[in-house]
Specification:
- The complex is a heterodimer of chains A (244) and B (227).
- With 244 residues, chain A is mainly beta.
- Chain A has 2 domains: 99 residues, Immunoglobulin-like, CATH 2.60.40; 90 residues, Carboxypeptidase-like, regulatory domain (Immunoglobulin-like), CATH 2.60.40.1120.
- Chain A contains 1 helix and 17 strands.
- With 227 residues, chain B is mostly beta strands.
- An 8-stranded antiparallel barrel of chain B has the order 1-2-3-4-5-9-10-12. A two-stranded antiparallel ribbon of chain B has the order 6-7.
- The longest helix of chain B is centred in the N-terminal third of the chain and has 20 residues.
- The radius of gyration of chain B is 23 Å and the shape is elongated.
- Classes of the chains: A mainly beta (244), B mainly beta (227).
- At the A-B interface, helix 1 and strand 1 of A face strand 6, strand 8, strand 9, strand 10 and helix 3 of B.
Chain lengths: 244, 227
Amino acid sequence: MRVAYKIILSVLLLVASACTKPTEDIKIIVDTNIIKYTALIHVTDGATGGIAPAGAQIKISGGAAQQVYELSGKKDIHLTAGTVTIGLGPDVHPAANQPISITVEISAAGYKTVSQQVTFTANQLQQIINIGLIKTGSNQEPVSLPPPTVYMPVSLNFTGTCASRNNLQIRPSVYVFFKETGSGMPFQYLGYVDKGDITTSYLALGKTYDFQITYGGESHQVRQKIEQASYNLTIDMGNACNNF
Amino acid sequence: MRFSTIIFLTLLLFCQYTKAQLTEGYNSSLSHKKQVTLNIGSQGAGAEFGYGIVPRAAARLGANFIPVTAYNVYRVTGFNSTSKASAKFNNIHLLGDFIPFKTHSGFRLVGGVAYFFKASGDLTIIPSEHYTYGDIELSEEQVGTVTASADWGGIAPYLGLGLANLFPTGHFNINFDLGTYYLGKPKARMVGTGILESNASQTGQFQTNINNYRFMPVLQLNFNYKL
């Protein structure tokens, strides 16, 4: 019977050898494109085109104000480093002949208050509203920075990670800003990241850039030297992870 | 009586029965013997027809089915969700039994082949009800689900052991099969909907993880009736 036992043992070992965990390195990936119709509110100091004055406030008003959320789905809307992304709740869709409008009011101590209408239309999912604040008493027109230089296209894939939840990944659908590391320049708008992906022509080979997204009232940054045509970039999403 | 006690007694009976059958001498030819079998085990429930071809070899033709669905067998840590797992393994098979030792007619080598017209497993992760995104409560459709599927359909060889006499000496007996099918290379797929749509990008990783899942162990109890 020793032969029989050996055969049984061999069969069992053969079966056991296949036992790799099927969920090894599998994550739960969550998209943030819940709010489809969005507007990036980008506030700058109108005199320089640089970072928004400290303490700049945003107020949303109008008939549809109750249907507007920050990109993370929160009703608490405030500027972070001069930017915030707002949008319509997921159940609200502007009809082709019936756009939805709100008024955005930006104020800061010592600066003129600016009110601007933001209109969500059926055929435009993303829009950028640039607002330059001018000091009270000044007649200067807000300056706007020249568009970035165009280079060869570079593809970036952003993945949001959560330090406290290793099995969760976030595919951000957000507006992303960039600046050359150490340049002393303010962050400039790079483009819209759709489910983590963006292709841009604003990055020069051999240079290092800081990329910044603002989500849920927090800014998250990642740095990358550009030496090839595509990169996978990982951003620690911090407290935003609690949103999922 | 505790469940573990029942299992222990069942195993004890199994061992005693098998030992008695294994050591029983080879006292009659298998030739032209016929039986029908109902079975239950790791490859589900099924039925077979057995026929003795030569004195020490017989063939079995049969089919087995597993339709299993289970809930909450898998938990995603830190993600408020439930899960639903289902497995469907349906096959028709042709097996050959050979008695290698004359003095141990209850010990058989078994080989053969099966055609799995269905061999698939699915695991669906379903986020919990009242899933909120910030201050927004999302509908089930907006949240969506993640489903990981694997499909092994096709032809699979079988190798195993048969324990206890193949054919009843009276009208009825019980015997056992212990072995494994070697399934085809699985085809993996991950599908997401709603805010979980991007999980489809993990199909490649899932495929790598299950590439070696090709052995389908068979531990089966057969109830045979002599024709």
